[in-house]
Write a structure and sequence with these properties.
The protein is an alpha+beta fold. About 55% of the residues lie in helices and about 15% in strands. A hairpin with a 4-residue loop joins β1 and β2.
Length: about 350
């Protein structure tokens, strides 16, 4: 063999004269980014092939798992912050003046009571929404990670569906309570501090959750009522109330004189400094409501602040009693007609 040809043959085998592509080094027509990076850094075919065989796939899987989890955590943090901000805004009652004027009532209740009610409702809704957001985001990330690991998700999803149906059938009452509680909070049917009547119980609401409403009656008994069992609810302390007094007087009394005394007595009470903030409109004497035996029933009504009907009614009864005593008007006992 000529010397020049021998030198050329030997020289072509030198490492710096070899032209090996990443595809050849990684032994694949579509090498991964990590395999290309290893080849570009080391220029060693054996190490690159070793990396591709044993380390490339695990590192790629680990990398995408980390990226998925980091992205899920960031997205979850953003969602939780947005929900917290929205619920805090709800708790503080921030709204445009246009909406505020549209929804304003003649009496909006005690500011402390309204703030407590908004805060309680916002806290419950915020907790539910944050839980839902966390489950959806982290659940999706978990399924992505399982798919990245090469697991077949079809049987898992099928099993989850079967378990969900079984749990749904076994916990229908709990699901019903949660749905009813959610709509109750969204619609603001009642809140902490309201005096409500749910048919089976009647009292002041002390706590409201998605599953149960806790209320205390006038005797101090605490009632726990599942939200799903509340078919109808009467709220006696929402926006405003009305004190209705049916005053029985002797059937021989002059009804016009009785109505005049009742009107003056109610107007005097409404003008009293201790009560004028709780009386929203001028008292009204509606007149004879019924004839009951030897009695004439005369009705007086006063529009009041929410939850103040009973106290105003008690005060007005005392004042009417004094006024009748001074005027010599007899209070009758309603009885059956002869």
């Amino acid at each position: 063999m000529p010397l020049a040809q021998t030198a050329l043959t030997l020289g072509s085998s030198l490492p710096w004269q070899q032209q090996v592509t990443p595809e050849q080094a990684c032994d694949t027509p579509n090498p991964s980014v990590s395999c290309r990076l290893v080849w570009n850094i080391t220029n060693d075919e054996r190490f690159t092939l070793f990396f591709k065989t044993w380390l490339d796939t695990p590192l790629n899987v680990f990398f995408w798992i980390v990226v998925t989890l980091v992205f899920a955590l960031i997205l979850r943090s953003i969602a939780l912050r947005a929900i917290t901000k929205a619920t805090l805004r709800m708790a503080e009652g921030t709204m445009s003046e246009k909406i505020r004027e549209r929804t304003r009532t003649s009496f909006e209740g005690s500011p402390a009571l309204l703030n407590q009610r908004r805060a309680q409702r916002a806290k419950t809704l915020g907790s539910v929404l944050r839980s839902i957001a966390s489950i959806l985001i982290m659940g999706t990330a978990a399924f992505s990670v399982l798919g990245e690991l090469g697991l077949n998700l079809a049987p898992i999803l099928a099993s989850a569906s079967v378990i969900g149906v079984a749990v749904g059938f076994g916990a229908q009452s709990i699901v019903r309570d949660f749905l009813a509680g959610l709509f109750m909070l969204l619609e603001d049917q009642y809140g902490v501090g309201d005096f409500i009547d749910v048919g089976t119980a009647k009292g002041t609401v002390e706590a409201v959750t998605l599953r149960v409403t806790r209320m205390r009656d006038v005797d101090g008994v605490v009632w726990y009522v599942p939200n799903g069992e509340i078919k109808k609810v009467g709220n006696e302390s929402q926006n405003w109330g009305r004190a209705v007094l049916d005053i029985p007087v002797d059937i021989h009394e002059d009804t016009e004189r009785v109505k005049e005394i009742l009107q003056v007595t109610a107007d005097t009470m409404a003008a009293d400094a201790d009560w004028k903030e709780l009386v929203l409109e001028e008292p009204s004497v509606w007149g004879v409501q019924a004839l009951a035996g030897d009695a004439v029933i005369v009705r007086v009504v006063i529009k009041t602040a929410p939850g103040k009907q009973a106290s105003i009614a008690r005060e007005l009864r005392e004042r009417v009693k004094k006024a009748f005593d001074e005027a010599g008007i007899s209070v009758a006992t309603p009885g059956a007609n002869a």
